[in-house]
Design brief:
By secondary structure, the protein is mostly beta strands. The protein has three helices and 23 strands. Strands 3, 4, 5, 8, 9 and 21 form a six-stranded mixed beta sheet that branches. Strands 6, 7, 10, 11, 12 and 20 form a six-stranded antiparallel beta sheet that branches. Strands 15, 16, 17, 19, 22 and 23 form a six-stranded antiparallel beta sheet that branches. Strand 4 and strand 5 (about 65) form a beta hairpin.
Length: about 350
């Protein structure tokens, strides 16, 4: 019989886009009670808004509730203090223009709740980042679970990373996150003035439930090559008929963070995904100052990060996959073929995707 569970919000490390909250089930154990504090957040070297999520578990099979009214501070090298603002319920933000990260500095989080309880992490060093060398990709087949719950082999784009490692270093720990973006442009036939609208979509992590980490404990390893970073379904094909980008975040993390994510990955291999029951033994690096034995959930990550991007255009698929022609196939109804509701986006950009502002780097 399946045990009752609590739900934990786990931060998926999407630094550019801010935060991505994912529900993770935790088994209800004697050591894991109702009213546990949940802390998730990342501090990186990117000059973007830094987020800390605070919540509390409230009961069996219920999502945690956001925790409001807390004081959240980031301490650099034990003295310089940055204060977070409560942007929305449970979401505390340090604006990027008020934050000046320093490599090899130590960072710790300090939290004071409205009831006076104080929590903190131990200082952790922001290591010098390691930049990935390149991304490669190919078209392949991958088993995918359909909306009907069936497993079918589907055509996908598979993405890989290549990274050179500092020679002789055995204390290097890496983590990756892969995001996808694409452009879709309206057709000139849509209005008498032939005005085009350039629309952009994406920014979500691919397979956020899969934890991609690496430890350079093997002597003599100076390069890791063709590391599997994730995949994306080619269908619906409108994602690839113009310009498509993959964006790879390579985080340099501490050994403590590596061990935390390693345990989560071990659980996912045993139970299916990190969204399945997780033992309470996967503990946080945040603790109650006056009661260190109190169970706290989540993780506060201090990490440097490097970002690289890979551009794909429709012509790149020649000989790999028969992409349809946008003008004559996808938007062919403008030339006399009966209109389908699905591709009315050729005139209004209303695709069933997350539309975003044009990325500054596009």
């Amino acid at each position: 019989m399946k045990r009752p569970v609590l739900y934990l919000i786990l931060l998926s490390l999407g630094v550019i886009s801010g935060i991505c909250s994912c529900l993770v089930e935790l088994p209800f154990e004697p050591t894991l009670k109702v009213n546990n504090l949940v802390v998730n957040g990342t501090i990186s070297n990117l000059k973007t808004d830094q987020h800390i999520l605070l919540s509390r578990t409230v009961g069996v099979s219920q999502p945690p509730i956001p925790l409001v009214g807390a004081q959240v501070r980031l301490v650099e090298n034990g003295s310089k203090v940055y204060s977070f603002l409560e942007q929305s319920a449970g979401d505390y933000v340090l604006p990027g223009d008020e934050y000046d990260p320093t490599m090899l500095a130590t960072y710790q989080i300090k939290i004071e709740l409205s009831d006076g309880n104080q929590y903190q992490s131990d200082p952790d060093i922001m290591q010098v980042p390691v930049k990935p060398d390149s991304m490669t990709w190919t078209v392949g087949i991958h088993p995918v679970i359909t909306s009907e719950g069936l497993i079918r082999n589907q055509d996908v784009v598979k993405v890989f990373a290549n990274t050179s490692l500092p020679e002789g270093r055995k204390d290097l720990f890496l983590k990756w996150d892969l995001k996808s973006y694409f452009q879709f442009t309206t057709m000139p036939e849509c209005n008498p003035f032939k005005i085009l609208s350039y629309c952009y979509y994406g920014g979500n992590s691919l397979q956020p439930e899969e934890i991609k980490i690496y430890s350079n404990l093997e002597a003599g390893v100076t390069r890791v090559q063709d590391l599997d970073m994730g995949f994306e379904n080619i269908f619906p094909e409108y994602r690839f008929v113009e310009t498509h980008y993959y964006e790879l975040y390579q985080y340099r993390i501490s050994e403590l963070a590596y061990e935390y994510f390693r345990k989560l990955r071990l659980v996912s291999e045993q139970n299916g995904t990190i969204f399945d029951p997780i033992p309470a033994s996967v503990t946080s690096n945040v603790y109650n100052v006056n009661n260190p034995k109190e169970k706290v959930l989540g993780f506060f990550l201090v990490s440097s990060v490097e970002v690289i991007r890979k551009q794909l255009v429709a012509a790149d698929f020649a000989g790999l996959y028969p992409l349809p022609d946008k003008v004559n196939n996808i938007c062919g109804w403008l030339k006399g073929i009966p209109e389908s509701v699905y591709f009315s986006a050729c005139c209004d950009c209303k695709l069933p995707e997350k539309r975003i502002p044009k990325p500054v780097w596009w």
